[in-house]
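Researcher: I'd like a candidate sequence for this fold, 272 residues long. If you have to choose between options at a position, lean toward the conservative one.
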């Protein structure tokens, strides 16, 4: 297998860390991301030890801070010549406004951060023959009746599950739109599995159904397997173990266009 350079956000814990360990053990160059410098350092050291190679690097950024994202992108772009796979894994469940942006942190971390990272790394990704972007959606994306533009803009703070679900619906809609616009980049929205054993799930629900390894296994396959090379612009539901229909609004072009337009307006206002 050709060795890949793979960036995984939120990879000092949970599904992200399990995925990083699996990929590092396969010999891939793994770029670890975290927001806590000590945990990041420990994770990089652990991965080097477990994989018995040094092609592991750590990058620090708080994904609620758009300027920190830009700094991380700049840092990574100077360190690596190419990026084969971007796994937008980092996510939060609980809401609340961020002082810097005025947006709900669920939309910032679960939606806007993956967009910024994917767009900023597009050139590095396109240096490769078969680049991939894997965006972590959720079974919760099917729950909202519709996406609230007020919530997207931080004008309404929704209850925890509702806000989380809407942020994941928005990410799924964007993933499909990005895939259509960038056919050279395989872009897949994926539910890694419901109620996996992560800190976020334990804090939110107090119980789990399956190990985080269930999510890590599918992320590795989506990132690398030739079987998923034709999965671009699709939604993989690991609860079912197959590609499946996403929320109906993902296929409503007017609603997608409205979301893309509003997203561009918000990001332009915050990243100038």
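Model: Candidate sequence:
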């Amino acid at each position: 297998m050709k060795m890949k350079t793979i960036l995984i956000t939120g990879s000092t814990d949970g599904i992200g860390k399990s995925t990083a360990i699996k990929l590092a053990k396969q010999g891939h160059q793994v770029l670890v991301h975290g927001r806590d410098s000590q945990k990041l350092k420990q994770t990089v050291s652990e991965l080097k030890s477990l994989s018995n190679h040094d092609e592991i690097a750590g990058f620090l950024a708080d994904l609620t801070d758009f300027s920190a994202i830009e700094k991380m992108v700049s840092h990574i772009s100077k360190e690596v010549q190419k990026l084969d796979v971007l796994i937008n894994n980092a996510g939060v469940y609980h809401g609340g406004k961020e002082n810097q942006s005025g947006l709900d942190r669920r939309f910032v971390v679960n939606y806007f951060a993956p967009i910024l990272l994917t767009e900023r790394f597009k050139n590095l990704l396109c240096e490769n023959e078969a680049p991939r972007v894997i965006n972590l959606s959720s079974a919760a994306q099917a729950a909202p009746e519709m996406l609230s533009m007020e919530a997207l803009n931080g004008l309404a703070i929704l209850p925890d599950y509702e806000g989380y679900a809407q942020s994941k619906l928005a990410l799924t809609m964007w993933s499909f739109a990005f895939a259509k616009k960038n056919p050279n980049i395989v872009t897949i929205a994926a539910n890694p599995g419901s109620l996996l054993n992560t800190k976020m799930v334990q804090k939110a629900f107090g119980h789990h159904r399956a190990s985080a390894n269930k999510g890590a296994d599918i992320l590795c396959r989506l990132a690398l397997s030739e079987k998923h090379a034709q999965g671009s612009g699709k939604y993989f539901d690991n609860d079912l173990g197959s590609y499946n229909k996403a929320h109906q609004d993902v296929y409503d072009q007017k609603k997608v266009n409205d979301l893309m337009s509003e997203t561009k307006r918000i990001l332009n206002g915050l990243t100038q």
